[in-house]
Amino acid sequence: MDDKVKYIWNEFSSELYKYINGKVKNKCDAEDILQDIFVKIYKNIDKVDKQSKLKSWIYKITKNTIIDYYRKKKDITVDIEKLEKGLEEDNNSDNMNEEISKCLEKMIFELPKKYQEVIELYDMKGMKHKEISEKLHVTMSCSKMRVQRAKAKLKDILLECCDFEIDTYGNIIDYKQKKTNCQKCGNKCE
């Protein structure tokens, strides 16, 4: 299996399963839909241009696969337009992920240079660890470790500044700055 698809499976499969199970209410069908989604992801992985758009791309596939499921089920009477609207509202819920993501992009510059480099290459440019290791003349495990440490440091910086309210899907639905004059984020997130 492609490394990118493995990453997506590890990061999103349980979250997607919970989401699907909430829409379908049949565990076997939810598992089948999840498998269909990952087949579509595997076949179309090259179509996603940026790492930052990955989650919305995955949820668009998920939404369409759930709709296809109901269209194929003739014995289930569901108003497809109502379902589409409901799924659309779920997908475009009032979360603050993008806003916080922009804030994190600014906080990257507070990281040591070696962590800034790998985060930019891995998360912003979508490079694989092999490519990063060749570009930076480090081992692949060093690249992976730096990405992991950079993310941990970013999380610490963010949690030092703000408290977050997170929904069951891991989306940030609200946040509050701990200090009004925080030097780390100040008004960056607003």
TrEMBL record:
A molecular function GO annotation: DNA binding
CDD domains registered for this protein in UniProt: Sigma70_r4
Domain RNA polymerase sigma-70 region: start-end pairs: 12-74
GO biological process: DNA-templated transcription initiation
Record-annotated RNA polymerase sigma factor 70 region 4 type domain positions: 102-154
Keywords: Sigma factor, Transcription, Transcription regulation
Xref: Pfam families: Sigma70_r2, Sigma70_r4_2
UniProt record similarity statement: Belongs to the sigma-70 factor family. ECF subfamily.
Official protein name in the record: RNA polymerase sigma factor SigZ
